[in-house]
Amino acid sequence: MTEPTESGPRRDMDDKLPRALWVRLIIYVAVGHLFAAFVYLLFTLGAQNQ
User: Which residues, other chains included, contact 5 with Cβ-Cβ below 8 Å and sequence gap of 6+?
Assistant: First the structure.
């Protein structure tokens, strides 16, 4: 025998992430890259002034 599968809106919600989570994820990745670029810039400028 096979198990019954869920169908309908509940299954759709489990298969994809909410839009707000994607927006937050993109913002965190963008801010993280900007912060890393700023730190890299500080180290680059600091190395040139030695």
Answer: 11
User: 6-50: per-residue pLDDT in tens?
Assistant: 565 666 656 788 999 999 999 999 999 999 999 999 999 999 988
Q: How far is CA 21 from CA 2, 27, 45, 49, in A?
A: 34, 10, 36, 42
Element (H, E) at 16: none
Cβ of 37: how many Cβ atoms within 10 Å? 10
Query: How far is CA 8 from each of CA 5, 20, 27, rounded to the nearest angstrom?
Result: 10, 21, 31
